Amino acid sequence: MPMLWSLLVVALFPLMVAAQEDGELKVGDPAPDFELKGSDGKVYRLSDFKGKKGVVIAWFPKAFTGGCTAQCKSFRDHGEVLRKFNVVYFTASVDDEQTNRRFAESLGVDYPILSDPEKKVARAYGVLNARGTASRVTVYIDKDGKIAFIDRNVTAKDDGMNVAKRLDELGFDKAGD
Questions:
Q1: What was the pLDDT predicted at 176?
Q2: What percent of the chain has pLDDT over 90?
Q3: Once rounded to an integer, what is the mean pLDDT over residues 130-145?
Q4: Per the domain annotation, does 88 fall within a domain?
Q5: Per-residue pLDDT tens for 97-109?
Q6: Within-domain flag for 19
Q7: How many domains does the chain have?
Q8: For the chain: N or C, fewer Cβ within 10 A?
Q9: Residue 177 to residues 15, 79, 108, 148, 171: CA-CA distances in angstroms?
Q10: 68 a catalytic residue
Q11: What is the domain-level CATH number for residue 141?
Q12: Residue 151 class from Cβ within 10 Å (0-12 exposed, 13-18 middle, 19+ buried)?
């Protein structure tokens, strides 16, 4: 039996590695295009910014929860420094549009919170977790539409500040450059 198990592992290992690689974005990969409605009622597409601006999408699990509230407030509170970069930034979840609109209004945010209730974009970005919500992951996309960085170790209350630091470290253009 151990010999059979060894042969099975050897035979299936390349398939397991390929399956892992297919589902996970890496730095340098083209970012999957998206079309999502924002809490401001507008529709946003990644393709609208290609060649013009970088894009930051900070995924969060669920509106009106402690960590997600802290994360979205962090983007609100650090908006002045984030706007110094030639980027558009969003927070995003798989909550429906009405929930995210109410959430955005309750926090007084000055940026759109994107809704992905069909979970297609969350799945394409590799942030959909086993609970059916988005994991707390912040994705940086350069103005050419390529993944510049993926932060899978987000501290909710510091995400806005950390994004500004990371944009600078990654050499994203300043607004007006």
A1: 77
A2: 85
A3: 97
A4: yes
A5: 999 999 999 999 9
A6: no
A7: 1
A8: N
A9: 46, 19, 29, 19, 12
A10: yes
A11: 3.40.30.10
A12: middle
